[in-house]
Amino acid sequence: MYIFRHYGNERYYNVDDFPYIRIVSGKTYTGRKKIEYFDTFLTFDIESTSTVYQDEYIGYMYIWQACLGSSDGSWRYAVHGRTWFEWLEFKRKIEQMFAADNEHRIVCYVHNLSFEYQFLRSIDPFSSTFATDKRKVLKATSGGMEFRCSYKLSNMSLDKFCKYTGATHKKATEYFDYSKIRTPETLFTELEMWYTFCDVMGLHEAICKLLEEDTLATIPMTSTGYVRRDCRNAMKKNPKNWAWFKKCAMTPLVYELILEANRGGDTHANRHYAGQILEDVDNYDFSSSYPFSMCCMYYPVTRFTKISTVRSEGDLKLYLDRKCCLFRIHFRNLRIKHGVTNPYISFSKCYDYNSRKTALYNGRVLSSPVIGMTLTELDYDIIQQEYDWDECAVSEFHVADRGMLPKEIREVIIQYYVHKTSLKAVDEYLYAKDKNKLNGIFGMAFTNPIHSTYYISSDGEWTEEKPDIAKALKEYSTNRNNFLPYVVGTYTTAHARHNLRDMIHIAGDGNAYNDTDSTKVWGVDISEEVTLYNKKVQALAEQYGAYADDRKGVRHYMGVAEQEKSYKYFRTWGAKKYAYIQDGELHLTLAGVDKKKGAAQLSSLSDFRLGKIFLPDCGRRTVRYNDWQNARYITVDGCTFLTGAGVHMENGTYELGVTDEFLEKLDFSLDYLNEL
After folding, report:
1. CA–CA dist 527, 452 (Å, integer)
2. What is the pLDDT of residue 662?
3. What whole-number distance in Å separates Cα of residue 272 and Cα of residue 274?
């Protein structure tokens, strides 16, 4: 048993020495469903080891740590233990002192609750769980303790969250070796204990910073919750907004069309340049692309209604030019136009095709004898600029009137932008706060309002229970807490893709790579064209107030294409696979690989090649779950202890590769690639 440790004036207690007698419950706050929350809250964390036990991949806890303190930060105490029995004893004592139960709860924040939940589920079963997907837990209740996910609240790593909020205790990763096999009897160095201490103390301090403007009953569950609350309060000021929301109610068919039409950011590489090392590459980024769309672009402002009179492409064009449109369309003999190097149509969003006769490049359609998809008029406009076809047939054609989003929601977005712009280089915390809110606008708009229910069944497996769509849509459209039609997210991303395509078309064959709100340009100077494009955007931004002046009086506009620092050298192998040299330093973006750790394993840009193997310390992890329903004793390195369900993690390698169809479309041979 560890006795408490001293860190200056701070003490790190064990379960027996914890100063329970000093704890004052303080105030309570009433939340939803009349649940009362104590003004005191916990932060909790575990450290775990992954191993193979009796031919099974398992993970087990060997130390837990917690911090209990007031919401105003006036007092806090940290505690640790080495066994689950100690945690259960500590939890029982705290619940007893507060007289906590299901109606009177102590909040416990965990940074990435989904991880700790897996370990706790068979040790101290939860009475209720709210998950957004299988193994993605947002909130769970056990006895009188409500566990919440602080990662979902902050949308940041613990290290960034502590720095962002100005917490005194920062994550001390440099003092801890995660790969070391430990048990509950493994001795810790002082620095290792300091690491565990900082994790829960820093998180408590960070949460307290957020609670300066909230209580434990009002604080949102997620980072987008702040945005949603601000927008909801603004929208409620005008009764007409509720009438507008109801008017835009979805039928099950329209909801299905929206799901089919939904696409995220447009990320792709020019097949003429993929794999090549390009020199002097310009870099353009759109300023606040999604907020600009919401402030300055049109949206559906009425219910989508079915039109049965579209019998020709002429009829189609009349509606496409004047209305918001959602429709299914089938093309016959679709083929990409000559000179288009960055195809738009994503194969993953297509249906009714012959896969053997459909030509692809990195997941994008080059040609197909017949293929179907669901589009908005914005997507169709891009497709007709980039593809030819012999015939097309439209079905389930739905239209709605166009208009601007309510001014109340646009004013909130502009307010975020103004605050962010004025606070840059002045107040780092408030600047980051408004920047996060501005970025959260899209998350709010694109969130699917119809959710499945996820729970752990009697056999210990995660189970999905799908909703009754018609019933769920009716409940959604009549709930006064809702205010933003789901299709707004669809059109936000569609406008952003359309604006990005404008930039891609300006660059022409010089567009080397694009990702959501940025494009990399090589071999051509498009500065004059970009200036003309930005003048149009600025005029639109001025019209709708989508701009802000910084402290020096310089005006900044949403939606403009800003030229960022160029790359000396650039190389890409497709979406989310590129490396570049800037100011003599090599940078890497590779999905699944840590940017800094991965870049450190590249000797040069030539080393960023097909077949390159990034070693286990590149940040890539393999995750396996053991779903033991009941706790059991195991023995590791002579130490016998209680454990249950868990997570097994191990560092993995990553081999850089592409598909065969990708290689087939490159402008040079594989032999050439191997010589680089």
Report:
1. 48
2. 61
3. 6
Cα atoms in the 13 Å half-sphere on the side-chain side of 517: 21
Instruction: For residue 414, count CB atoms less than 10 angstroms from its CB and return exposed for 0-12, middle for 13-18, buried for 19 or more.
Output: buried
Which residue blocks in 283-427 are alpha helix, DSSP H? 289-296, 313-322, 377-386, 407-423
Query: Taking a C-beta distance cutoff of 8 angstroms, is the pair 664, 65 a contact?
Result: no
Q: Where are the chain's structural domains?
A: 5-221, 222-302+401-575
Q: Tokens 């606040």 identify what position?
A: 288
Of 247, 240, 250, 154, the closest CA to residue 203 belongs to 154
Close Cβ partners of 218 (under 8 Å, ≥ 6 residues apart): 29, 31
- Pick from 110, 1, 32: nearest CA to 65: 110
β-pair partners for 629: none
Structure tokens at 382: 């891009």
Q: What is the pLDDT of residue 425?
A: 64
The predicted-structure confidence for 92-143, as pLDDT tens digits, reads as follows 999 999 999 999 999 999 999 999 999 999 999 999 999 999 999 999 999 9
Those residues with Cβ within 8 angstroms of residue 430's Cβ, 6 or more apart along the chain or in another chain: 419, 423
CATH tag for 222-302+401-575 (out of 3.90.1600.10, 3.40.50.2300, 3.20.20.150, 2.160.10.10): 3.90.1600.10
DSSP labels, 272-305 = TTTT--EEEEEEEEETTHHHHHHHHS-EE-S--E
Q: Is the pLDDT score of 457 beyond 90?
A: no
Is residue 584 over pLDDT 70? yes
Q: Give the whole-angstrom CA distance, residue 599 versus residue 585.
A: 9
Q: Quote the pLDDT of residue 32.
A: 82
Give the pLDDT of residue 670: 44
What interhelical angle do 377-386 and 313-322 show, nearest 10? 120
pLDDT for position 672: 40
Of 659, 13, 100, give the one whose Cα is nearest residue 347: 659
Give buried/exposed letters for 576-599 (b at 16+ CB in 10 A, else e): ebbbbbbeeebbbebeebbeeebb
The pTM of this model reads 0.91
| 8 Å CB contact between 90 and 66 | yes
